[in-house]
Amino acid sequence: MNNYSDFVYLAVKRYMRNTGVSSAYLAKRLGMERGTFYARMHGRRKWTVEDLQRLSAIGVDVPRLPQPRRASYV
């Protein structure tokens, strides 16, 4: 795992496993075509902020975006 999309993928897979919902059902709940959902899950398309908000609204534990490190000046 080396990018944020990988963490979102794991969160969505965990949600699907814990709730027993299918990817087709989840795509429909998110208001997107199955192909679009699969492309996002497999990193061929980026998740949008709106996608992440919808995931969170239906109960997926969406990981927080990493915060950039601030330079420390002494």
What do you see in this structure?
The protein is an all-alpha fold. α2 packs across α3. The radius of gyration is 14 Å and the shape is elongated. It starts with a helix and ends in a 16-residue tail after the last helix.
Features:
mainly alpha, 4 helices, single chain, 74 residues
Order of helices and strands: HHHH
Uncertain segments of ≥5 residues (pLDDT<50)?
Answer: none
Give the number of DSSP strands.
Answer: 0
Q: Any idea what the radius of gyration is?
A: 14 Å
User: Which shape, going by the Cα principal axes?
Assistant: elongated
- The number of distinct helices, counting runs of at least 4 residues, comes to 4
- Give the CA-CA distance, first to last residue: 34 Å
Main sheet specs: none
Helix content: 55-70%
How would you classify the helix and strand content by structural class? Answer: mainly alpha
- Quaternary state reads single chain
Mean of pLDDT: 90
Percentage of residues in strands: under 5%
